[in-house]
TrEMBL record:
InterPro entries: Cell_cycle_FtsW-rel_CS, FtsW/RodA, RodA/MrdB
EC identifiers of the protein: 2.4.99.28
Keywords, comma-separated and alphabetical: Cell shape, Membrane, Transmembrane, Transmembrane helix
Locations listed in the record: Membrane
Protein name in the entry: peptidoglycan glycosyltransferase
GO molecular function, one term: lipid-linked peptidoglycan transporter activity
Catalytic activity: [GlcNAc-(1->4)-Mur2Ac(oyl-L-Ala-gamma-D-Glu-L-Lys-D-Ala-D-Ala)](n)-di-trans,octa-cis-undecaprenyl diphosphate + beta-D-GlcNAc-(1->4)-Mur2Ac(oyl-L-Ala-gamma-D-Glu-L-Lys-D-Ala-D-Ala)-di-trans,octa-cis-undecaprenyl diphosphate = [GlcNAc-(1->4)-Mur2Ac(oyl-L-Ala-gamma-D-Glu-L-Lys-D-Ala-D-Ala)](n+1)-di-trans,octa-cis-undecaprenyl diphosphate + di-trans,octa-cis-undecaprenyl diphosphate + H(+)
Native source species: Streptantibioticus silvisoli
Database matches in NCBIfam families: rodA_shape
Length: 378
């Protein structure tokens, strides 16, 4: 076991500081987006701020716990983690589940708190696939994962993805698909699997669209993405108002708490899915770039950890977290700019939401654990 001073010395403080600063900026943006929304803040301007800070504190505590456990020791309980994730997903489909913005993907706990199991399913997929793909490679039995290992890992990922599609939660499914592809690429699995999955995914998406298996609100979102001028007071309202908010910020923004689109409550779900619009309007281009740079720093350090990992298990875990955070960030920011369809997923470290905050900080803990296994000179 590493000594306490060795643990502190081996941690990636550049990543940790970037994540804390990003979360701090997110707290201010959430506060600005909700302090005047009496319909949801129960008359308390600090209602969402306090809960966001509580979520952040719990998330950091979970990160510390993950580091203390270590990704290698967690390997023994991955089946338990995976099983709990599946049970929580199934609970959403039971009477315990609640519908928010068309997606039946939540469990309401009470007291203003709710749980979105799909966030934890992302971690379960990363750990489960890493365990299967790296097992025989790290044992020295083979150089790269064989076809059997790839097939088993894909079977593990398909189960939670299938349940999430039944909710339906298309945004989380999209993120998981990217996670799976990122893991297969980083593990050294035969490239035919990657190309085959991409072809199958494209075929499946066309089939889902042609057979009209999507819910109406999901079809409307894609229609609004394809044609931004479509029904600006209806399905295109969110994206239209988001672009107006970001565009009105200019270079330096209107100042925190002074955005007219934000104070006027023109952008729906601004504390969650569209929190980046607050940054664009009130902090301007400079503030938005700072957020993107902080995300970039986290991803850069995570890629460095993946490259320097001492075993395939650590490499795959780190690569899975990179694929998760990078695509989710790109999708969230992209949908506010109109370059990606609205998928209803939060901006990591920034958006309001306990489940998302807990999950991303657990991801930071996994990255730190992988880093601590590298040689001191690396």
């Amino acid at each position: 076991m590493l000594a306490r001073d060795s643990i502190v010395r081996r941690m990636d403080w550049v990543m940790i500081v970037a994540a804390i600063v990003l979360s701090g900026i997110g707290s201010l943006l959430v506060w600005s987006a909700t302090r005047g929304r009496t319909a949801i803040n129960h008359g308390d301007p600090q209602y969402f701020l306090i809960r966001h800070l509580m979520n952040l504190a719990i998330g950091i505590a979970l990160s510390i716990g993950t580091i203390a456990l270590g990704h290698r020791r967690a390997r023994a309980i991955i089946p338990i983690i995976y099983g709990l994730a599946i049970l929580l997903l199934l609970a959403v489909l039971s009477p315990l589940g609640s519908t928010v913005n068309g997606a039946h993907s939540w469990i309401v706990i009470g007291g203003g708190f709710s749980l979105q199991p799909s966030e934890f399913a992302k971690i379960a997929i990363i750990l489960g696939m890493a365990m299967i793909l790296s097992g025989r490679v790290d044992a020295g039995d083979q150089l790269t994962p064989d076809h059997r290992s790839v097939l088993q890992s894909l079977g593990l990922a398909v189960v939670p993805m299938g349940i999430i599609m039944m909710m339906p939660d298309l945004g989380s499914t999209m993120v998981m698909v990217v996670i799976v592809l990122g893991i297969l690429l980083s593990s050294g699995s035969p490239k035919r699997w990657v190309f085959g999955l991409m072809a199958a995914g494209t075929t499946g998406a066309i089939a889902v669209w042609q057979l009209q298996l999507l819910n109406k609100y999901q079809i409307d979102r894609f229609a609004a993405f394809a044609n931004p001028a479509l029904d600006p007071s209806g399905v295109g309202y969110n994206t239209a108002q988001a672009r107006i908010a970001i565009g009105s910020g200019g270079l330096l923004g209107k100042g925190l708490f002074h955005g007219s689109q934000t104070t006027g409550q023109f952008v729906p779900e601004q504390q969650t899915d569209f929190v980046f619009t607050v940054a664009g309007e009130e902090l301007g281009f400079v503030g938005a770039v700072v957020i993107i740079l902080l995300i970039g720093i986290i991803l850069w350090r995570a890629c460095r950890i993946a490259r320097q990992a001492t075993d395939l298990y650590g490499t795959v875990i780190a690569a899975g977290v990179v694929a998760w955070l990078s695509f989710q960030s790109f999708e969230n920011i992209g949908m506010t700019l109109g370059i990606m369809p609205v998928a209803g997923i939060p901006l990591p470290f920034v958006s309001y939401g306990g489940s998302s905050m807990f999950a991303v900080w657990i991801g930071i803990g996994l990255l730190q654990s992988v880093r601590m296994q590298r040689p001191v000179s690396a």
